[in-house]
Write a structure and sequence with these properties.
Chain A: The chain crosses the membrane at residues 15-35. The complex is a heterodimer. By secondary structure, chain A is α/β, with parallel strands linked by helices. Helix content of chain A is 46%, strand content 11%. Chain B has helices spanning 2-11, 17-31, 36-58, 77-83, 98-105, 111-121, 145-155, 174-188, 205-216, 232-238, 260-273, 295-308, 331-337, 370-379, 387-398, 400-427, 454-466, 497-513, and strands spanning 134-135, 199-202, 222-227, 244-249, 277-283, 311-316, 345-350, 363-367, 431-432, 440-444, 470-471, 473-474, 485-489. Classes of the chains: A alpha/beta, B alpha/beta.
């Protein structure tokens, strides 16, 4: 009563409703504040702040320490919440598969290395040490590779890289070296873009099925979310602007701020090429809702169909406005068969993004000998032209062989035009028609057929039963072997007639 | 009953009838039904929703709300788009994130980055550009470049191409981890053996430090760092992680050595402010001062960390650079010899600085903490070392004879250069800290600055840069509390350059000392 009466008195008499509202509100506010501060303290907080332990252990240091420090090793020192979630063992079949193959390798069909690796190796065997160490004389020389160089890459490499990208993407648009930022692979390039374009808690729209690595590259350390926009087999898994708009509006209703769209073109895992109309529509949509476009064009040189590849750079080339919202990712790991070199490109038209990316590239820089090596290789334009042509031819013939082999088994793929993989429909082989059925089939393929393929659920595909088969690590003789192995599993799964 | 009403109406200043309509029922509630409970809850609820509303509003303005509309026509696409601007119009430039903006602004105008830029534009070269800016502000070692060059041109022809193009574990080839473990044991010259399985290789010390910060701290947490420290650490620790650094000043009176009392004080002050300290970051040899921490100090540090239940990150990037009387003691040794909790110590080693090859961009994290190790292995994909470079380094580090000779020669040359440089500065009346490690002379130029403050220090830095054409590292970006201290890296100079540098500094010191 002692408390209530004066308070009531305040409300009734002196000050009136103003004090009667303000005091409870102030109390409430401080309560919120107090709760917020104390929420962040973990439960295992040591409580004795003794400052005298240093003096105690002057003499006989060895024995006294173990006796006098009671807490010793009983209190576990804590790691961050982010580390705990990252360090958790892999639960996605994509990663589990990769790990298991590493233990027992053969027929690795899920991690595409290049078909034309032999050409690269031949060039390297003739030129490696000279070009890497700059001993040829046109490079920086040893002191060049030894000293600190710009974190975002040597200018010479940017120049030849821009030239290579122009060549590989069909010479329809030319890339500007000053807009190139080099990183140690496309993985950090994606992460850097994610940091630059979105703040914690923001989101990107991503047409699904998508590359499983996006979940890791875009989300782990950045605090950014990915919202899948599901595509269907009846549309050949191409996205539509309507679906994107719907997803965007739903996100807004939920209070999630969408910062951009992440597309892969050629798409991974389906292998579609996006045509000009779709890309123009995408740019219009992005302009209307004021968001960015990240275009992952890492498979741009791995086309084999009749359609031509169109880069986002070409789309904004013909328009004067709005280049600022387009950003392109490229790398040497797929088209050029050198994933071990760890070279990726972040290409942007936005000066702010470039400025921030150049600074952030210090966390993911390419080592200078590798840069020098690449400068040599990419400057040899005869070699690169020959390589690009041969690579496409080989991918095409391998694709044809592989698809024919699968067709014998009654398995159909989507009609794809690019990429190092096929998107195969195995839905009639799974029972039940669900993610569980799909994972059972994946298991069988792994254990019985001893092949590792990527199931659609790892790619966030909404229709169960689709699998990604990469065929570029095989040679022609191996395809019948692989088809035979798959046949074993197919026959097992066929319902009894 | 009437009195309160009259009071209310007078305090609300003759409230209009409408106002009374709200107040009276509310007052009724307070007085009669429900009492104090409702009289508090309702205003609080209103207040809470007001807060929520304000918070929502303070988010950057959402784009204009419009309906979808099909783009006009597929024929003559180019013309129609430009002539029929979408009725919504362009809704503004695409925004970059606020964290990108803050990264761009960081230190863009500070002396550290400005100095580096000036050297880039006008670098000194003995023959080609003798009037250029001499770089003394970046801790880089070129002393044994000639030996390394020789090795490379002899041995590099045997570099094999097998396996250098394909995917390999992102945290580094096991062969390189083994070679690195051997290298470190060799350089430290102790009986200590390093376990290759506790190693994660990264593309330089910068990502190694960032990965450790991500693994050990959440956004809003902080690390204690003895100051002065390398300006790069601000970027490495803070840019993307959301983690803060709390500098713990060390004083020239203590020869800039670590004081547990100051650490304790800083820890308690942070606690009072509600900031959670997750660990301590120290460099050993310290950068930029160059002192070595002795065994006692490191034991005290371990005691402190154990007591407060925090981590220790030890940057041991320059272990091959120690010379002089003091022996280097690594944290790896400390946690071996005593019954300490190994899982709270994490060490970063540089593989390239001691061999004059910082351009290789390769460093490693050494930790016994399984969580941190596992998280770092996964994060290594964002900063992996390219395989050709790994192969090169495997060859080099496995040639133990070459490594031994090179480290010996490096230490010798370091000592000689340091002595010459320090003596030269002494002639000018400039004293340096007596340090045994690192590539930098930490020099006291406070007698040369006009006003004993940061501004005076920056004026002197400016004079050194523009008049003497020397880029020195001033103490303020290193968070040194005492103005006037400068870091001068002497390991990119050749012996013949030292007199030139001393002469240029003399020029400035004479102008500073002369009565104005």
């Amino acid at each position: 009563m002692r408390l209530i009466v004066p308070l009531q008195g305040v409300v009734q008499g002196r000050g009136g409703i103003i004090l009667g509202s303000i005091i409870p509100c102030a109390l409430f506010y401080f309560l919120q504040f107090y709760l917020k501060r104390h929420r962040s303290l973990p439960p295992t907080n040591p409580t004795l702040p003794s400052t005298s332990s240093g003096n105690l252990s002057e003499l006989q240091r060895c024995s006294s320490r173990t006796n006098l420090l009671p807490r010793g090793s009983t209190v576990r020192v804590r790691v961050s919440a982010r580390a705990s979630s990252i360090a958790k063992p892999n639960d996605s079949p994509y990663y589990i598969g990769l790990d298991r193959v590493r233990e027992d390798p053969y027929d690795e069909m899920s991690n595409p290395d290049g078909l034309s690796l032999d050409m690269i190796e031949k060039w390297l065997s003739e030129n490696l040490s000279i070009s890497m160490l700059g001993l040829r004389g046109d490079g920086l020389g040893i002191s060049g590779i030894a000293t600190y160089q710009p974190m975002d890459g040597l200018m010479e490499l940017k120049v030849v890289m821009a030239g290579f990208m122009t060549e590989v993407m069909g010479r329809t648009v030319s890339f500007d070296p000053s807009q190139v930022v080099l990183t140690s692979g496309a993985t950090p390039a994606l992460e850097i873009l994610s940091f630059c374009l979105a703040d914690q808690g923001n989101a990107f729209l991503v047409p699904a099925p998508y590359y499983p690595g996006f979940d890791r590259d875009m989300k782990w350390r950045t605090g950014v979310e990915l919202i899948p926009v599901h595509c269907r087999s009846c549309d050949n898994f191409t996205w539509s602007i309507t679906a994107l708009e719907q997803a965007y509006n739903q996100a807004r209703k939920r209070g999630q701020k969408v910062r951009g769209i992440l597309i892969s073109n050629p798409s991974n895992p389906v292998g579609n090429l996006l045509n000009k109309d779709m890309l123009y529509d995408l740019l219009d949509f992005a302009r209307d809702v004021n968001i960015h476009i990240i275009s992952d064009e890492i498979y741009a040189g791995s086309t084999y169909g009749n359609e031509e590849f169109v880069s986002m750079a070409e789309i904004v080339d013909s328009e004067d406005a709005d280049k600022d919202r387009v950003h392109i990712i490229y790398g040497m790991s797929k088209d050029f068969s050198v994933p071990g070199f760890r070279v990726g490109v972040l290409y942007s038209f936005n000066e702010n993004v470039l400025a921030a990316s150049r600074k952030l590239s210090r966390f993911s820089s390419v080592s200078t000998p590798t840069q020098q090596l690449l400068v040599s290789v990419l400057s040899d334009t005869n070699f690169t032209r020959e390589y690009i042509k041969t690579n496409k031819q080989r991918i095409r013939s391998m694709y044809n062989l592989f698809v024919a082999g699968l067709r014998e088994l009654g398995l159909e793929c989507t009609k794809s035009n690019a990429g190092l993989y096929s998107w195969v429909d195995m839905s009639r082989l799974i029972s039940p028609y669900s993610e569980k059925g799909e994972l059972d089939l994946w298991d069988n393929l792994f254990n019985i057929a001893k092949i590792n393929v990527t199931p659609g659920s790892a790619c966030h595909c909404i229709e169960p039963g689709w699998f990604r088969f990469c065929f570029t690590t095989l040679n022609e003789k191996e395809i019948p072997i692989v088809v035979d192995r798959i046949r074993k599993v197919v026959e097992r799964c066929k319902p009894p007639v | 009953m009437k009195n309160p009403k009259k009071n209310i109406s007078s305090t609300t200043g003759g409230g209009a009838a409408a106002g009374m309509r709200v107040i009276v029922p509310l007052q009724g509630v307070v007085q009669g039904r429900g009492g104090l409970f409702f009289g508090s809850v309702i205003p609080c609820a209103l207040f809470y929703f007001l807060q929520l509303y304000l918070r929502r509003r303070s988010d950057p303005a959402p784009p204009p709300d419009t309906e979808p509309e099909n783009s006009s026509g597929t024929l003559q696409r180019v013309q129609s788009r430009s002539s029929l601007p979408s009725p919504r119009g362009s809704s503004g430039p695409a925004q970059v994130s606020s964290r990108a903006n803050s990264v761009v602004k960081q230190g863009a105008d500070g002396p550290y980055y400005l100095g580096l830029k000036r050297v880039e534009e006008d670098p000194y070269h003995q023959l080609d550009n003798p009037g250029g800016v001499i770089q003394l502000g970046l801790a880089e070692n070129r002393l044994v470049l000639d030996l390394v060059e020789e090795w490379l041109s002899d041995s590099a022809k045997e570099l094999s191409i097998s396996g250098i193009t394909t995917y390999h574990p992102f945290d580094g080839l096991i062969e390189l981890k083994i070679a690195a473990a051997g290298f470190m044991s060799q350089v430290i010259e102790g009986p200590h053996l390093f376990n290759p399985e506790q190693i994660v290789l990264t593309a330089g010390a910068t990502p190694a430090i960032e990965m450790l910060i991500f693994s050990l701290a959440d956004p809003g947490n902080a690390f204690l760092v003895p100051a002065p420290y390398s300006p790069d650490l601000d970027g490495d620790v803070k840019w993307r992680t959301g983690v803060e650094i709390i500098p713990v000043p060390c004083r020239s009176a203590d020869n800039f050595s670590l004081s547990i009392t100051s650490l304790d004080r800083a820890f308690n002050q942070a606690k009072k402010r509600g900031v959670k300290i997750r660990g301590i970051i120290l460099s050993n040899p310290s950068n930029p001062v160059g002192i070595l921490y002795n065994r006692e100090t490191l034991y005290d540090l371990m005691d402190f960390a154990t007591e407060k239940n925090i981590h220790i990150i030890s940057n041991e990037l320059f272990i091959g650079s120690t010379n002089g009387s003091d022996k280097f003691v690594s944290m790896a040794e400390i946690i071996e010899t005593e019954d300490f909790d190994r899982i709270r110590v994490h060490i970063v080693y540089g593989l390239s600085n001691d061999l004059s090859l910082p351009g290789l961009r390769i460093a490693l994290i050494y930790t016994f903490n399984e969580h941190v190790l596992s998280a770092s292995k996964k994060l290594a994909r964002f900063s992996s070392v390219s395989v050709p470079t790994q192969h090169l380094l495997i060859s080099m580090l496995s040639d133990t004879k070459f490594v031994r000779q090179t480290i010996e020669v490096s230490r010798e040359r370091l000592q000689r250069m340091r002595n010459e440089f320090v003596n030269g500065l002494k002639e000018l009346g400039i004293e340096c800290v007596n340090s045994c490690g690192g590539f930098i002379c930490w020099a006291d130029m406070s007698s040369l600055i006009k006003s004993y403050s940061e501004k005076g220090e920056l004026d002197l830095w400016d004079k050194l840069l523009n008049n003497a054409k020397i880029n020195a590292l001033p103490g303020s970006p290193c968070h040194c509390v005492e103005p006037g201290w400068f870091g001068l890296c002497f390991t990119t100079l050749s012996e013949g350059d030292i007199p030139l540098v001393i002469q240029r500094v003399r020029g400035v010191s004479e102008t500073c000392r002369s009565p104005s």
